[in-house]
Amino acid sequence: MINLDLTHSLDLKKLDSYQEKVSKINKMIEEKTGEGNDYLGWVDWPERYDRNEVKEMIEAAHYVRENFDILVVCGIGGSYLGARAALEALKGLKYNDSLEIVFMGQTFSPNYVSQVLDYLKGKRFAINVISKSGTTTETSISFRLLKQLLEQQVGKEKARKAIFATTDKEKGALRTLSNKEGYKTFVLPRDIGGRYSVLTPVGLFPLACAGLDIEAMLLGAHEAHVKYNNDNIHENICYQYALVRDYMYHHNKSVEMYVTYEPSMNQLSEWLKQLFGESEGKQKKALYPGSACFTTDLHSLGQLIQDGTPLLFETIINVLNPEKDVVIPYDEDNLDELNYLKGRSLNFVNQKAFEGTLKAHSEEANVPCNLLLVDRMDEKTLGHLFYFFMRACAMSAYLLEINPFNQPGVEIYKRNMFHLLGKKGY
Ligand code: PA5
User: Ligand 1 pocket: which residues have CB below 6 Å?
Assistant: First the structure.
């Protein structure tokens, strides 16, 4: 399903000395004894998820698809990025569906928020509000606005049936509100943190509403769990990837650039940036996770990557077989001199660009390039891929002796902002 090729990055033998550490950390992950272990619930989630809840999500998704034209997904960070990444990676950027998915709650931008509210006016929309804590300000403000608009348009009673909340089973402001109003709710398990929650209702309910096969995603994750619970570094590509990151970090690299050749995967890069950035970015350690979409960004960042800095390495996620393809036509006049490509597909051209760029960066500029080759993007593969990265991230953070599951630094901007906004207690 996915393959890791390190030939353009480093000699695998350089990783041999990690074996003992990896065995120890793998045990800590699987047995949930590592630092932050009360957030290791995602490790065996593909085996122990609530089958009934998945059925309920699929039923509720049918209801949403039958009764509404738009679903507004309201969340931020780990309560937003996974669903958006999967939606775009699987459906593309321009798709036709009877249900449109719109994201809100991930910004204070007055322009964005007012545009979405204007767009929703007079339309049949449902809301999936997602927040583990129930107190995240961006999400709460957006939800208040959305709820008011919905209630104005359809009345309180009908609005209740159009609001779906994903939150903690018992605690938090959103749970209290949901219980009071009688919203249909889905549970974000307490032992799974936001950025590890894409395979819970946080990601799965919006994706089910988009008509995607969420059971196939969970099956892909299950297969990944079985495959990557293996401490043999010669067999386990997930840990090989984690080790390369650690090796690069200790050999003067400070930026990992996620590269795709597919704009519909840009949001997957955003999800990766949060996963690795928020999990590892502590104690003045960590690689900076950046991203680029080639060939588009070769016309902006290409020069810098080729000649500008020795600090980065690339992790290229290359999907070999696209869902759709386009053939380049013959043109009688050939003024654009493209007839040498007549009958060739765009994927052929894209893959040649990939090969040419790989050579330019890895051989001619000495930029190490890890290749993650994906045969075809579908629900099962993406479920596998999400799990691959979450497990690699836990290994990578534990190698740095960092707790991957907290984010103490994020609180500081909030504290300052609340003080400036005059919130009680700040
Ligand atoms: O990964 C995380 O924990 C964060 O990104 C959270 O998901 C994000 O801050 C949103 O939090 P909440 O779900 O409590 O609204």
Answer: 76-79, 131-133, 136, 139, 193-195, 278, 407
